[in-house]
């Protein structure tokens, strides 16, 4: 029996299924969570299927979160999508079920769960959920709502098919999802649009970006900056890809102040591997997209220096080749 077959058997076995994802969710976290919930509910309408976590207003169009009572976890199957390590799971009751399954496309540096299905080469967890559906499509149903959620997740994690994780298979999956008939143009527009405060913050980012000769770019978003544009941490997601649009930039970090005075570090790259840097600073992720933490300005300075060294080494290597 394959791992996917074991997961499917657990889904068929349990009457109550609760699906979690990571904190501060992006479209793939919610897309894979809602997409899987919709597929299971449509296929087994007599089962109770709950998607739990903090409701994110900016992504509520993908799907709304359910309310789960503590008793709901008794004898339940819990599935966590798109979450690499336990501390990032939204709602720590995820361990209270009878069985726990991890479905994720991040490097499996922190395994958890009774069944672990991890594919680091997949473009997204949403792509994995579609592949799961397709493997058992004789028994599972893909509704337009599920397809819309999965498409949004794939679109988000591939940067609208710009990132290296986009494969021919990814595009075939996207085409299959589009064929269900949801409003593709509306989804594309929702993921592409930004609020006016974010647009103004974008101008600030470009104006204040520090770029080394080797192409390492950094910018720090302090409390004063966020207050100026009337934004909180969640509102800064729209500016994360911006440095990568500059042709001379090969990797970048955006530092965002948190309520406790520490900084969230969003690391991205167009070539150099940056997840080892993230691991050194209480983080992790993909080779080209990771997250970390900085406790103060001294650690920010250290990360800037390390990122600059990574960019320099990358440029030297490319010149030799």
Automatic annotation (TrEMBL):
Gene3D superfamilies attached to this UniProt entry: 3.10.310.30, inorganic pyrophosphatase (n-terminal core) (3.90.1640.10)
Annotated DHHA1 domain residues: 240-311
Alphabetized InterPro entries for the sequence: DDH_dom, DHH_sf, DHHA1_dom, Oligoribo/pAp-PDE_c-di-AMP_PDE
Taxonomy, superkingdom: Bacteria
Pfam families: DHH, DHHA1
Residue span(s) of domain DDH: 16-154
SUPFAM superfamilies named among the record's database cross-references: DHH phosphoesterases
The name this protein goes by in its record: Phosphoesterase RecJ domain-containing protein
Organism the protein comes from: Pediococcus ethanolidurans
